[in-house]
Amino acid sequence: MINRLIKEIQKKNAPIVVGLDPTMKFIPGSIKEKAFSVYGETLQGAGEAIWQFNKEIVDAVYDLIPAVKPQIAMYEQFGIEGLIAYKKTIDYCKSKGLVVIGDIKRGDIGSTSAAYAVGHLGKVQIGNESYAPFDEDFATVNPYLGTDGVKPFLDVCKEEKKGIFVLVKTSNPSSGEFQDQKLADADNRPLYEIVGEKVNEWGAECMGENYSYVGAVVGATYPEMGKVLRKIMPKTMILVPGYGAQGGKGADLVHFFNEDGLGAIVNSSRGIIAAYQSEKYKDTYSEENFADAARAAVLEMKEDIATALEQN
Amino acid sequence: MINRLIKEIQKKNAPIVVGLDPTMKFIPGSIKEKAFSVYGETLQGAGEAIWQFNKEIVDAVYDLIPAVKPQIAMYEQFGIEGLIAYKKTIDYCKSKGLVVIGDIKRGDIGSTSAAYAVGHLGKVQIGNESYAPFDEDFATVNPYLGTDGVKPFLDVCKEEKKGIFVLVKTSNPSSGEFQDQKLADADNRPLYEIVGEKVNEWGAECMGENYSYVGAVVGATYPEMGKVLRKIMPKTMILVPGYGAQGGKGADLVHFFNEDGLGAIVNSSRGIIAAYQSEKYKDTYSEENFADAARAAVLEMKEDIATALEQN
What we know:
The structure is a homodimer.
Chain A: H1 2-12, E1 16-18, H2 29-39, H3 43-61, E2 67-68, H4 73-76, H5 79-95, E3 99-106, H6 110-120, E4 124-126, E5 129-131, E6 138-141, H7 147-160, E7 163-169, H8 176-179, E8 182-183, E9 189-190, H9 191-204, E10 214-218, H10 223-232, E11 238-240, H11 250-253, E12 264-268, H12 270-273, H13 290-311
Parallel strand pairs in A: 1-2, 1-12, 2-3, 3-6, 6-7, 7-10, 10-11, 11-12
Antiparallel strand pairs in A: 4-5, 8-9
């Protein structure tokens, strides 16, 4: 799957992933009204509105991008009905040829991580039958529990030719609280570097053609740390959240890439899917053509990153 | 909810939580056959088998224990149908007067953690209506993202009078890889102690009568660390996994408790729900009376912990 992701990035010339993180306030009134008119203002109604919203966004941008990253929390907040919309979104995106990165940030003790790995990336056995319940192509994983919390994901990835992105340095303001702590037994280097070294180690036994299928998450909001982590994890695909709405700019991203122009894939969520509500686009686009605004925002993001990479 | 949890612990004289972590191999053949005869060897069949299994376990032990802790991964591995069984289990346990700790180990950047908090502990707004999608009483939370990943859970807890347990030192073998790292800027104390201090700090503004509704997870498998963490977090309820199948014993647990005999609640999963398969019980119990074996195992665990606390 890492080879396919890279081929799609090259084919579409866009190291970009669109975060499908719908909230009720991003969804145009007309879509909500239609869903509520059938299902009422219910969890099912919300699920339907999310699914219709996603579908229009995907239809408008799928030819431009290699991958999408639905954030499962945005679906899980609507319970079972939200998760049904999550699953529909995954299936639809795959039918459009997109690589799907499930932003699930799971991670637990071994036997429990194995259950998450099976449910999201693998197949679960029931009697003589087996099923792929959520069936994302990649999943994000939290490393706090150490190797035996990550290992079960690697086992499933090897079997299914899928991949993971391990949280190394997250994009949020307080990520440094624990992640930046200097470690006495590692020459005072920060924890995120040591996690990065582990990712590199885990990845070495999970190599695709040029990149490992054990990737890392490093926030666009910390470009200097990205530069160091790029060197620590040379064969690691870095998933870079925090571009756009969270403050990351194209120029901040150059050091996340390798000299081959690859090695990073940048996510934008709100900046794309709610572009029609942004200062920049709200005069040109309205609720009726929210999906066109998303397309314009993808094109602009693609240009921003390409320009930054060329100038480097 | 923390006050209620403590009252239930006192009333039942049992600082015990039963982990409802069903797997296909724990479920007696007769339950599986019945479920499969209606739904086939499908995800729905698995969900039904899990739900019937849980129901019998709960019926057999609910009068002895204050709380249950379903591990969501064990349900999520069966996709939507598994999560329907998770939700049914929560509702049923609450109807039996049990406190429900959702072992979800979620944690993300602020806006995303807010979605998890709303979906699991709070209410989600849809138009003019609001719904409590999963509605557990407590949830476990991963701290790797720092304060702004935890804060949204606290906000919801304050509003809903619920609580969380933050992962501090987990029970698994490789938990030390990152959690035990000595921090140069904290007098070489390990990361888990610093996370413990944060839990204490977050908890100070979330006090119930005597304990905070910000609890901590500390594995029974690390009793010496539990002793230190008990002192660092005096007002924190500690959820202690790792008893039984993972190797923790009653005598290991005494230092997790305060002098008031409270402050900790010990989880056992496999050791209870799959007791009928264990060396100890397999000659006395069979598949037909698996729930009686679970009851016997709860009584034995209660005795083990009570004896250890008395001898201390």
